[in-house]
Design brief:
This protein has helices at about 5-10, 15-25, 30-35, 35-45, 50-55, 55-70, 75-90, 90-105, 115-130, 145, 155-175, 195-210, 235-250, 260-275, 280-290, 300-315, 330-345, 350-365, 380-395, 400-415, 415-430, 435-455, 465-475, 490-505, 515-550, 555, 585-620, and strands spanning about 220, 230. The longest helix has about 40 residues, at about 585-620. A two-stranded antiparallel ribbon has the order 1-2. With about 625 residues, the protein is mostly helical. It contains 27 helices and 2 strands. The termini are far apart.
Length: about 625
């Protein structure tokens, strides 16, 4: 009997039970193995979208026969045929059927065939890559908008596919899992079946999870003090938890993967340096770098997957209680920052909040341990500050900015006084953004006043004497271009500087920090120049307003003024001016800018008056050691 012709004939004739009996009959095993590839290929041709709709019995019978064949034939041969079908598959239901056959074959795959398994997973990822992510992910989103992403048709398709992937990979991971006693610090990072599954899960995570709403929240009870209800899980959270749990079957100590944020960054730097070589030298370097470590591969979504994994473990409390506690929190903090950088460096701002949450979790992981300024010499801290702050600048999400700023403050306060001072000086030196400068000024003011309230004698050098003088005169109370400085563009930092000066003077009437020694220079180089700049700016915009009110609509539009480059971007809340503005619009803008300048002028006058009053009182009481230099 020709097995191939008989089975195909039975299927075409609709005799599905007979075909199944032939495949399951042990007497036919040898014949089946001789023609396994042809048999699998021809039966798999019945797994089409058309047959699923119009010939469901044929479709179901073919799926059943393929699974039976996968349990008899060479796993490698069956997998080869299945991969050919997955490459051309266009329908998710067809993919699901093919994965059932693939799963049956993998469960019989010899341990030494790890590369075959890796190839299978790569083919599955290629199928997912053919699905384009929705355009909705390109916009800024707050918490509520993110939670609605599951209503997007493409996202729903992805989530359904991921649930299928979890059902597909879970039995494979269970078979490959080992007792925790066999895990060690010397984890085998070569290409094994176990590591192939781990990398597959990481790539699944990196492909989709960065864009989903994964924050796990709770519902409070009406009665105060009682433990809140657990929140219902969304499909996104369920998928994230299930993927994490499958991965933890294979790696009992997830911290073994923590160092790859730094390793992969360092490896990429090495490859960039070697990219100038002739021929295939760069590719050879990549092979050398990853030959003994599968987690260093350049496969797509690996780094993103690692970052999401630690966001889930630390930021969303999915770290198992069985995880080792021997790791130094400082190591976890520093190594984890590499993944924060990964999460806040992309184009899609929807990912940023996961980086913010991970950064928050890393700081809290320190649990009161204070870092030193010496640790800031590690390059990751400079990179973190730059990428993290740039992310907050790019994002228009209120949630991202509010929580992000709070976390940045927590990060700064994780260091000792010298470290805090060093970070704030770096922010004031390296960032032109006015809101960043305002933040740094307010942070320094708060740190100094906290020390003053503690009445520590002497004050730490970072908050007194020469270092305080350098910070105030050289970084805070300064106008970059003197009286020509655009006061509207620097409104926030100037206001913060005035406030910081007033608070520090008011809080230190005994001059412990020597802040009063700085006042004469500040009055000359900052307060006087600011007053002059305000006079010039108010005169300019008042003249613009007068000309606009008195002139014709057409005449003013052609003369530039408020319709041209004189309007700063900050004045228009981050948006460029329209090509043509009406007379009413230009009048409103003029009034708005005048109002902002007048508010700044009022702030300056009030603080100047308060300082003069304090000086008068102190001269009378004689309680201040030094008023003038």
């Amino acid at each position: 009997m020709d097995i191939l012709e008989t089975v195909i004939g039975k299927l075409q004739a609709g005799e599905f039970s007979a075909a199944k009996e032939i495949i399951e009959d042990p007497k036919n095993d040898e014949a089946i193995k001789m023609q396994s590839m042809e048999l699998v290929s021809l039966i798999a041709e019945n797994l089409t979208e058309d047959n699923a709709e119009n010939k469901p019995e044929l479709y179901s019978a073919s799926e059943t026969l393929l699974i039976a064949l996968a349990q008899k034939c060479s796993p490698a041969e069956v997998l080869y045929e299945m991969m050919e079908k997955i490459r051309i598959a266009q329908n998710d239901d067809v993919l699901t059927s093919l994965l059932k056959v693939v799963q049956a074959s993998i469960l019989r795959l010899p341990a030494k065939r790890a590369r075959c398994l890796d190839w299978v997973f790569g083919t599955i990822i290629e199928y997912l890559e053919r699905i384009t992510l929705p355009e909705a992910l390109d916009k800024d989103m707050d918490d509520e908008e993110e939670s609605l992403l599951e209503n997007d048709e493409i996202i729903r398709r992805f989530l359904q596919l991921y649930l299928t992937m979890i059902l597909f990979v879970s039995p494979i991971a269970t078979r490959l899992s080992k007792p925790a006693t066999q895990e060690s610090l010397y984890y085998d990072t070569s290409l094994t079946q176990k590591n192939a599954v781990v990398c597959f899960i990481l790539r699944l995570m990196g492909k989709l999870l960065p864009y989903l709403h994964l924050q796990r929240s709770v519902q409070p009870r009406r009665t105060p003090g009682r433990r809140p209800f657990s929140a219902g899980k969304s499909y996104s959270v369920q998928v994230a938890e299930d993927l994490t749990n499958v991965l933890l079957l294979l790696i009992n100590d997830p911290y073994l993967l923590l160092s790859y944020g730094e390793k992969r960054t360092h490896g990429d730097r090495l490859l960039k340096k070697s990219s100038s070589f002739v021929g295939d030298q760069s590719e050879q370097d990549r092979e050398d770098l990853t030959s003994n470590d599968v987690f260093m591969s350049n496969e797509k979504h690996m780094t993103e997957g690692l970052a999401v994994l630690f966001y889930l473990l630390l930021g969303e409390d999915l770290l198992p209680t069985s995880a080792p506690i021997v790791y130094d929190p400082r190591y976890i903090f520093e190594a984890g920052l590499h993944y924060v950088v990964e999460l806040v460096s992309g184009v899609r701002t929807v990912v940023y909040f996961k980086g913010i949450r991970l950064a928050q979790a890393l700081v809290r992981k320190l649990n009161g341990i204070q870092l030193t300024a010496l640790e800031l010499e590690t390059p990751i801290h400079t990179t973190f500050c730059e990428r993290y702050i740039r992310a907050l600048e790019r994002s228009k999400s209120v949630r991202n900015r509010e929580v992000g700023v709070r976390v940045l403050s927590e990060y700064i306060r994780a260091f000792n006084d010298e470290g805090r001072y060093t970070i704030l000086v770096h922010l004031l030196k390296s960032f032109e953004d006015d809101t960043v400068r305002s933040f740094a000024i307010n942070e320094y003011k708060d740190l100094v006043t906290e020390r003053l309230r503690e009445a520590t004698i002497p004050l730490p050098p970072w908050y007194s004497g020469e270092m305080l003088r350098e910070m105030l005169i050289g970084r805070i109370c300064t106008l970059k271009h003197g009286v020509k400085t655009d006061l509207l563009d620097h409104n926030y930092s100037i206001t913060s500087a005035l406030s910081a000066l007033w608070v520090l003077l008011k809080s230190d009437l005994s001059n412990m920090s020597r802040v009063w020694d700085c006042l004469p220079v500040i009055e000359k180089k900052f307060l006087t120049e600011l007053r002059t700049g305000l006079d010039f700016s108010l005169a300019h915009y008042k003249n613009e307003l007068k000309n606009t009110e008195e002139g014709s609509d057409e005449g003013n539009q052609s003369t530039g003024g408020l319709n041209g480059a004189d309007i700063s971007i900050s004045t228009l809340n981050g948006e460029a001016p329209p090509p043509v503005m009406s007379k009413e619009t230009r009048i409103d803008l003029s009034k708005c800018m005048i109002l902002r300048l007048e508010m700044l002028e009022f702030h300056l006058s009030r603080i100047t008056s308060d300082i003069e009053q304090i000086q008068t009182q102190i001269r009378k009481s004689g309680s201040l050691q030094t008023i003038e230099s």
